[in-house]
Amino acid sequence: QVQLAESGGGLVQAGGSLRLSCAADRSTFLNALMGWFRQTPGKEREFVAAIGRTGRIEYADSVKGRFTISRDYAKNTVYLQMSSLKPEDTAVYYCAASASASGARIEQYNYWGQGTQVTISS
Length: 122
What we know:
This protein is mainly beta. It has one helix at residues 26-31; strands at 4-7, 10-13, 18-24, 33-39, 46-51, 57-59, 67-72, 77-82, 91-98, 109-112, 116-121. It contains one helix and eleven strands. It is globular and about 40 Å long.
């Protein structure tokens, strides 16, 4: 069973920063494309960022230049460093894993974490 556990969510003022973490099992971490998605009530889950097995990185246009995805091989953890946060960044953020080499589509991801709430106040 693949297990993904997000953490680091919370309440932050606009313009602030927050770092999300996704702890994965070793096999998943080493072999899978790891991605971050987010979802707000009444809206479709949307792609945020992804990092592939070879280090290829993708970002949604809405977060490019503000968010940074990275991975720590020693801790089997993927991070999403978020800065210059805006109220529209408020959402539940999900960590996901895929067998694909790259991708920004939810259909490509087979495993999902439970989500962590990020709330940005004005």
